[in-house]
Design goal:
The protein is an alpha+beta fold and 265 residues long. The chain is built from six helices and 14 strands.
Length: 265
């Protein structure tokens, strides 16, 4: 009887251990579970005004890019001066997201063309699909002006997006705005979303926001109008966001709900 009891206990213990092993295998080890948790990777901090800014990439539980953006401190909105300035933010090392190469924050203390619409002091957040060297070759003058204003083929810009006189800029390219945006219908410009191109290719995506709007510590998301065709394979936003995060006392301007798209042929 004693042998039978010990054998029964041994069999039960083996079954319990097997069940636990199976359960761990189904759930994954703690390290594996942690690896599947959403994670944020940050780029190098850059001085912006009296504060700092940096790029970031948020990946979901399957490690797919879910959001990329610019994080900046409230002090970055002070001490910027009265001249146009460009701040280059590298993507996080080892965590790049196709098709984006780098991010540039442009401070426009006197706005830019068309000034009757975009004349308020504001920031441009350019998410570039080209390199800094390629941007440097864009002069938007002389023979290069024709390349700068050359429109992408049909389907590469969302319906309703148009360009305007003065929208071609050196080191950037041409800018395309939505005719449906509130600022073209009697509302003051606060934030908007722009597409950019050069030599017939879409080369950047650009949320814009005024200084006054950012100072209100907003928390908004808005849809991004989609084209029929995409210029490169990679992750494109379905939404964008302009947010103040009170818990960490930082601001985010981001491309959200990143979705993989194949390049058009």
């Amino acid at each position: 009887m004693a042998r039978l009891w010990r054998a029964t206990i041994l069999i039960g213990a083996v079954a319990l251990i097997a069940g636990l092993v199976g359960s761990v295998a189904r759930r994954g080890t703690p390290a594996a579970e942690a690896a599947r948790a959403p994670a944020v990777t940050y780029g190098r901090s850059v001085a912006l005004g009296q504060g700092t800014a940096r790029s970031y990439v948020l990946r979901d539980s399957r490690q797919r890019p879910a959001q990329i953006g610019v994080e900046f401190t409230p002090a970055a909105l002070t001490g910027l001066g009265e001249r146009d300035r460009e701040f280059v933010l590298p993507m996080p090392a080892g965590a790049s997201v196709a098709p984006y190469h780098h991010i540039v924050v442009n401070w426009n203390p006197h706005g830019h063309a068309p000034v009757q619409v975009y004349g308020a002091p504001h920031f441009d957040f350019h998410f570039y699909m080209i390199t800094p060297a390629q941007r440097a070759r864009i002069t938007a003058t002389g023979a290069d002006l024709a390349r700068t204003v050359k429109a992408p083929p049909a389907g590469y810009l969302p319906k309703g997006y148009v360009t305007a006189p003065g929208a071609a800029e050196p080191r950037m390219g041409n800018h395309w705005v939505s005719q449906a945006s509130p600022e073209f219908h009697g509302k003051p410009f606060t934030y908007t979303f722009i597409y950019g191109s050069y030599n017939g290719h879409v080369t950047f995506l650009e949320p814009m926001a005024t200084m006054a709007f950012l100072q209100t510590k907003p928390e908004i998301t808005a849809p991004v109008s989609q084209p029929q065709k995409y210029p490169k394979a990679g992750y494109f936003p379905m939404q964008y966001g302009v947010r103040y995060l009170p818990g960490s006392d930082v601001n985010h301007v981001s491309l959200d709900k990143l979705t993989y798209r194949k390049a058009a042929r």
